[in-house]
């Protein structure tokens, strides 16, 4: 990493962008970075074209389309900028997107600042980086084709990720800003779709 290293943060939420900027700006290893921000695909395209960043830090939102559009744009224009994707919750990797674009890292947003900095160092040195939980979940959760066949929604995928981490309905509700009752309804729907009767049976099915 050099004094001329340029990094682009892409996320629709200002609070996420500000938090990431704060962490990078206050770390000795990245304080010298030129950091750019984009809240949507248009701003991301403009920044990529104008600033030619060395790395894109892409915060993935389950409810947004910006990320999928950015993946498509990176593929269409053969942009070779390495990308680190930050997830809200553990979920399978996207091997088809990794092959089609230049995704080099997958990490969770609840990691510590040291691991975030380490992932950036690793990717800038040309090495892929995947946080432990992402690696674990990617090995065990069902492939995307099966999730589609079972009509598992994105919200249900979020909750499945937390179930894998053995969080209670109350803990999940606090992380997703939902009521406990709503989370329990989602859990029941997930059990029905996987045709199991308990959370423990669901976890066994997912980890087979």
Automatic annotation (TrEMBL):
Q: Is the Cytoplasm keyword given for this protein?
A: no
Please give the biological process terms from Gene Ontology that the record holds.
phosphorelay signal transduction system; regulation of DNA-templated transcription
Database matches in InterPro entries: CheY-like_superfamily, Sig_transdc_resp-reg_C-effctor, Sig_transdc_resp-reg_receiver, Tscrpt_reg_LuxR_C
CDD domains the record matches = LuxR_C_like
Q: Where is the HTH luxR-type domain?
A: 145-208
Q: Does the keyword Flavoprotein apply?
A: no
Domain Response regulatory spans what residues?
6-124
Its keywords, alphabetically, are:
DNA-binding, Transcription, Transcription regulation
Give the GO molecular function terms. Answer: DNA binding
Which SMART domains did the record assign?
Answer: HTH_LUXR (SM00421)
What is the protein name for this chain? HTH luxR-type domain-containing protein
Look up and give the organism this protein is from: Niabella ginsenosidivorans
């Amino acid at each position: 990493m050099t004094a001329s290293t340029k990094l682009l943060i892409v996320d629709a939420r200002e609070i996420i962008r500000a938090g990431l900027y704060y962490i990078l700006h206050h770390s000795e290893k990245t304080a010298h970075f030129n950091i750019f921000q984009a809240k949507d695909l248009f701003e991301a395209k403009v920044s990529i074209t104008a600033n030619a960043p060395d790395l894109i830090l892409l915060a993935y939102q389950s409810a947004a389309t910006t990320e999928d559009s950015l993946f498509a744009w990176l593929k269409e224009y053969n942009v070779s900028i390495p990308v680190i994707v930050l997830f809200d919750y553990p979920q399978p990797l996207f091997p088809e997107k990794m092959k089609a674009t230049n995704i080099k890292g997958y990490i969770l947003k609840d990691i510590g600042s040291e691991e975030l900095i380490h992932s950036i160092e690793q990717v800038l040195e040309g090495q892929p980086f995947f946080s432990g939980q992402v690696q674990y979940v990617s090995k065990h959760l069902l492939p995307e084709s099966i999730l589609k066949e079972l009509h598992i929604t994105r919200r249900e995928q979020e909750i499945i990720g937390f179930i894998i981490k053995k969080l209670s309905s109350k803990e999940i509700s606090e992380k997703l800003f939902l009521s406990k009752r709503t989370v329990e309804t989602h859990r029941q729907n997930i059990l029905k779709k996987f045709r199991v009767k308990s959370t423990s049976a669901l976890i066994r099915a997912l980890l087979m």
